[in-house]
Structures are given as structure tokens and as C-alpha cells.
């Protein structure tokens, strides 16, 4: 069972997760109501808040809010102060840490750092 949940609109986050080789659950718009049922890390790109409804639905479902351990956020640094605002806002709202930040589908370095985070948190 995966201990990573992610959301992707244009496929960059999906590509990043695929590069890690780790099992992960993809939050989908058609049915975001899935209970992780165990501690997990959320990986999200940044968009306007109204594009993140499925992630909010997912987080609000059953025990998901209690089980989230932290957020890994992606985005584009050209957004300056709004870089990874979605990940930061979710982490702040749920009182969990931002564990890692990267751009687009991540570099090889990002993949390695992400795996370290997953190992440290122990939700692999
Ligand atoms: C309409 C739109 C709005 C975006 N807004 C932000 C933003 O506010 N902050 C940021 O860091 N990145 C922003 N991005 C960049 C995406 O978060 C980034 O490309 C991410 O890797 C996309 O992941 P995905 O392909 O998995 O959806 C935006 C991209 C688009 C297309």
C-alpha cells in the first residue's frame, strides 16, 4: 500500500513520482475520496486555490488529515513569492512541515533528496 499521495494537473508531478520508483497513490478529480489509512506524505504542485478542490476533498476525507506527516511541494520559481504556495499553505493549515520543494518534474538531485525525506519520515 502506498504511503505517498500526489496530485498532478499537467503531468510533471506524475513524472517526478515515476522517477523515484516509489509506490504512490494519485489523487484523481473523478474520485478524490480515498482514505490512505496510514501515515503518508502529500506531494502537490502549485496552482490557484480553485484548481486544488480535489486535493482538499481528499484531505477532508475520513482520517487523511490526521495521517498526513508533511508536504512536498513543486512549482516554478518564476512565481517568486508564490513559489510552492499551495504546498506551503496546506502544510501551514494542517500544522505539518514542508518537507521538500522542487521545480517541475524535478532533477536527479531532487529525486535523491526526496527519497531521503521519505526514508527519514519512515513512511516508505
Ligand atoms: C495556471 C498555472 C498556475 C501556476 N501557478 C503556480 C504558482 O502559483 N506557484 C508555483 O510555484 N508554480 C505555479 N505553477 C507551476 C506548476 O505548479 C508547475 O509547473 C508544476 O510542476 C506543475 O505540476 P503538474 O504538471 O503535476 O500539475 C503554475 C502553473 C500553471 C499552468
Describe the structure.
The structure is a single chain. The protein has 124 residues and is α/β, with parallel strands linked by helices. It has a single domain (4-121), classed as Flavodoxin domain (Rossmann fold, 3-Layer(aba) Sandwich), CATH 3.40.50. It is built from five helices and five strands. The chain has a five-stranded parallel β-sheet with strand order 2-1-3-4-5, sandwiched between helices. The longest helix is centred in the last third of the chain and has 14 residues, at 108-121. The radius of gyration is 13 Å and the shape is globular. The mean pLDDT is 96. The protein binds flavin mononucleotide (FMN). Residues 8-13, 45-47, 74-76, 79, 82-85, 104 line the site of flavin mononucleotide (FMN).
Instruction: Look at the structure and name the CATH superfamily.
Output: Flavodoxin domain
Low-confidence runs: none
CATH fold field value: Rossmann fold
* Extended strand count: 5
Portion of residues in beta strands equals 15-25%
CATH class category label: Alpha Beta
Structural class: alpha/beta
Q: What strand order characterises the main sheet?
A: 2-1-3-4-5
Helix content: 25-40%
Number of domains: 1
Report how far apart the termini are.
10 Å
Rough outline: globular
**Total count of helical runs of at least 4 residues:** 5
Q: Biggest sheet: strands, sense, closure? A: 5 strands, parallel
CATH architecture assignment: 3-Layer(aba) Sandwich
Average predicted confidence as pLDDT: 96
> How would you spell out the order of helices and strands?
EHEEHHEHEH
If you compute it from the alpha carbons, what radius of gyration comes out, rounded to the nearest whole angstrom?
13 Å
Present as ligands are: flavin mononucleotide
Assembly state: single chain
